[in-house]
Amino acid sequence: DAGVIQSPRHEVTEMGQEVTLRCKPISGHDYLFWYRQTMMRGLELLIYFNNNVPIDDSGMPEDRFSAKMPNASFSTLKIQPSEPRDSAVYFCASSLGTGGSYNEQFFGPGTRLTVL
Amino acid sequence: GNSVTQMEGPVTLSEEAFLTINCTYTATGYPSLFWYVQYPGEGLQLLLKATKADDKGSNKGFEATYRKETTSFHLEKGSVQVSDSAVYFCALDLDSGYALNFGKGTSLLVTP
Fold first, then answer.
1. B41: distance to nearest CA of chain A, Å?
2. Do the Cβ atoms of B49 and B55 come closer than 8 Å?
3. What is the CA radius of gyration of chain B?
4. Interstrand relation of B106-111 and B11-14 (parallel, antiparallel or unpaired)
């Protein structure tokens, strides 16, 4: 398997622009997670899905952020409008399930977002 | 709720030195515990895990034992290599068991 795939790997945009980050989870994984990593705040869970349904979005910073999972093989994280404080590395991860040996999360390589 | 606290870095060691990175947790119930590693420019990857008290997880020469009595899961390696330079994250299941709660990460730099 190719692992979790994220695109783009790097994104530079100007304040106010819309940004869309994309993720393809590992085939057969029922859970998908979006994280944000910054030096100041570390690794933060933004939202996660189970079988394409959002389960917990309490980590989404504000209404400017939205995430969708239209099918089992694709998810997007959108920021509209973007602000400089959104600059971070955004990770997508997926897992088979929960508990025991099923809750290992596999991470993508991340998207480094810079908002000027 | 469930949470982890890990020692702040950066940690700088010479090659072949002994490594300990401390991690303590607060939990309701019996969480699983994890160590993830992030090499420069990459995503996190699972290093080892333990699912119940007294379990020892091990991988690539790293070990950690799930200590319920001290609520700890310290990461150890007897002889570090330059290639071990990375950021190490301790994590546990959130209350729902569906997602993980990560510590802030500890940066390790191993010098030749």
1. 8
2. no
3. 13
4. parallel
Q: Is A16 helix (H, G, I), strand (E, B) or coil?
A: coil
Minimal-distance CA residue of chain B relative to A101:
B51
Question: Helix, strand, or coil here: A51?
Answer: coil
Name every chain B residue with its beta carbon within 8 A of the beta carbon of A45. 99-102
Residue of B nearest to A5 (CA): B43
Paired residues of A42 in beta bridges: A38
On chain B, the residues whose CB falls within 8 A of the CB of A31 are 98
Q: How far is B16 from chain A (nearest CA, A)?
A: 29
Cα separation, A14 vs A60, whole angstroms: 21
User: Residue B50: phi, psi to the nearest 5?
Assistant: -145, 135
Nearest C-alpha in A relative to B41: A109
Element housing B54 (H / E): none
Per-residue tens of pLDDT for chain B, all 112 residues: 778 999 888 999 999 999 999 999 998 878 889 999 999 988 999 999 998 899 999 999 999 999 999 999 999 999 999 999 999 999 987 656 567 889 999 999 999 9
Instruction: Give the integer Cα–Cα distance in Å for A23 and A5.
Output: 6
What residues of chain B, 31 to 50, have a C-beta less than 8 Å from chain A? 32, 34, 41-46, 49
C-alpha span between B67 and A44 (Å, rounded): 26
Residue pair B75/B21 in contact (Cβ under 8 Å)? The answer is: yes
